[in-house]
Amino acid sequence: MNQSNQRFKIGEGKISGSLSIFLGILAFFGVFCFKFPELLTSPEFREIYTTASMQILLSSVIIASLFFAVLSFILSKKKTWGMYGLLICTATIFMGGFTVQGSKVGETSWYLGLDWLLLDLLLMAVIFIPIELIWPKNKEQTKFHPEWRTDLVYFVISHLFIQFFGVITQQPANIFFGWMGLSGLHTWVQSLPFVIELVFAFLITDFFQYWAHRTFHIHTYLWRFHSVHHSTQNMDWLAGSRTHFIDIFFTRAMAFIPLYVFGFSPIVFNIYIIFMAIHAVLIHSNTRINFGFLKYIFATPQYHFWHHCEDPKYYGKNFATIFPFIDKIFGTYYLPGNEWPEGTGLHEANFPKGYLKQLTYPFTKSPFDNDLNMEERTKR
Ligand SMILES: [Zn+2]
Ligand SMILES: [Zn+2]
Fold this sequence. Notes:
The chain has 17 helices and no strands. By secondary structure, it is mainly alpha-helical.
């Protein structure tokens, strides 16, 4: 077993050390968001938070990072991790971590979503790392398993290029339905009682996503791209990020069609986006929490792990992102009591390692010796 596969034990100073480094890096890049807001932050998110609240958050993250660095220093024999944490914090403070003011925001035609990346990374880590540590599904799996770096690159890229992904995924809906006079329909939808509008938005988008997802499994060429998502053997809070650009584009574009056509109110739209951001991480996370009766209403980790099952006998199940009943209707539902699949991933696929190689590979080559789609594989 190599170093990266060994679980950290409490009291070694490695958990506190890695927390210090992680928080330190977030704060370090956070300072840049204050210095170059027009290039590194997204206008949509700037509307949600205030500069003052982000200054408080930045200072808190630096203090937390310093605390964990000192703790690691005390606990660890080697002191290296604590030293790295302290170094990053010192650099962040030196750059103005505690004193940085928000700059005036000018107009730019392009920007990166560094604020979205850092805030989402922090929020997801705060929610899911404790859950995975306290109630793990696979106890042997560490946070630093062999696939985490690649998964993190996927996470970083899909967040940084939020403007690009946002624009291109809305294009198909705009091109195909933009010419229709839909304002009457939008007014009617927005006049519905809030709960009905919300449930309708979730149902209709999940129905579209179901078929987009299933198409990626049925179509042999598309399956090359979607199988990147299935290639991970270590399911955790970062694993769901491993999704090929072509897969993101088509699946999100399909979800945008009903959102665009029905013109849901901004509050419903925002709840949908926030729910999806958290729920997509939850269903891939390494946790055995089974959510009681809720697992029959909403997709849970157990439900989605069966979708990722490495045994071909169970391929082609549980395509729905949110509502299992959609799988029931179309005959692809599988949830056997409290049983979980033995393993996840695609053993027969040979994907190259690393983001860039995985990005280009499916365009020209199949990761499978026999270029079959998932449904054909299950019949063998
Ligand atoms: Zn799939
Ligand atoms: Zn998945």
